[in-house]
Design brief:
This protein is an alpha/beta fold. It has helices at about 5-20, 40-45, 55-75, 95-115, 130-145, 160-175, 180-190, 190-195, 245-255, and strands spanning about 30-35, 80-85, 120-125, 150-160, 210, 230-235. Helix 1 (about 5-20) packs across helix 9. About 35% of the residues are buried.
């Protein structure tokens, strides 16, 4: 460890305490979305002692960070957290990497549910996922349904465009079941109507969306819900995301004037 890193290690706890002391919890978001990006690049740039730079190692390191994040969210009174664990586009990755990633996601969701601290709510085009993973997600959701803690939306097989398509389909199917013709259903379709059929129906929209790894784009994450969200882009890869990075994101959010189109 270099002298510089030793100094940083000593100073960061003090810096964190200053950030917490100055943080106005009345101005922290109720719902945050987090794009957990950079696992594979982290693994390549941080080989293990044995030289392991595999994506599997990166995904496992990223999974281990999630409980830390949710603990920080509890401390700052955030009520809903949406974690993008697997996009619908990610389903196109190599069979080997996808199988490993799906296994890690299943283990991670079970670990989160086993804490007994958070309500797990799977969101996404779950029909695209293997049956075994769907079963694990359903079990986690059932197990935690009555827990009063943070609602954790685990976005798996998720794509923002797919979500909107699914919402409109569900609306049209219900309209048909109610005996409405196409013209009537179309005439009655509003933004509020679509809200009722999103994967996050009944939840507040995210006020803050965080993306790690330095990428400055959403990639379709919470495409509908984020129309008035604030965005925070962090340079750190997800496995390196620290409490101080999280607090900086909340500080940045609290300092912004949210006009909400007014």
């Amino acid at each position: 460890m270099t002298v510089r890193s030793i100094i940083k290690s000593a100073l960061y706890p003090l810096y964190e305490r200053r950030l917490v002391a100055k943080l106005d919890l009345t101005r922290t978001p109720h719902h945050i979305g987090v794009i957990l990006d950079g696992n594979r690049r982290w693994a390549k740039e941080n080989p293990s002692s044995s030289g392991d730079i595999s994506s599997t190692r990166g995904h496992r390191a990223g999974a281990e960070k999630i409980i830390e994040l949710l603990t920080w969210c509890e401390e700052t009174e955030i009520n809903v957290v949406t974690l993008w664990l697997l996009s619908s586009d990610n389903l196109k990755r190599s069979h080997e990497e996808l199988q490993s990633l799906i296994s890690i996601i299943g283990e991670t969701v079970e670990a989160l549910s086993s804490t007994g601290r958070w309500k797990i709510h799977p969101v996404g085009s779950l029909e695209l996922l293997p049956e075994e993973l769907r079963a694990r997600l359903k079990a986690a959701a059932n197990k935690t349904a009555e827990i009063p803690g943070i609602t954790v939306n685990v976005a798996i097989g998720y794509g923002g465009r797919l979500e909107i398509v699914d919402a409109v389909k569900s609306y049209m199917q219900e309209a048909k079941a109610a005996g409405k013709d196409l013209a009537t259903a179309a005439d009655q379709l509003t933004a509020h109507s679509i809200d009722q059929y999103l994967y996050t129906a009944g939840q507040p929209d995210p006020e803050l969306v965080i993306r790690t790894s330095g990428e400055q784009r959403l990639g379709g994450f919470l495409l509908w819900q984020s129309h008035q969200s604030e965005f925070y882009f962090c340079e750190a890869y997800w496995p390196d995301f620290r409490r101080v990075d999280f607090l900086r994101a909340l500080r940045s959010y609290a300092a912004r004037e949210r006009r909400l189109g007014k």
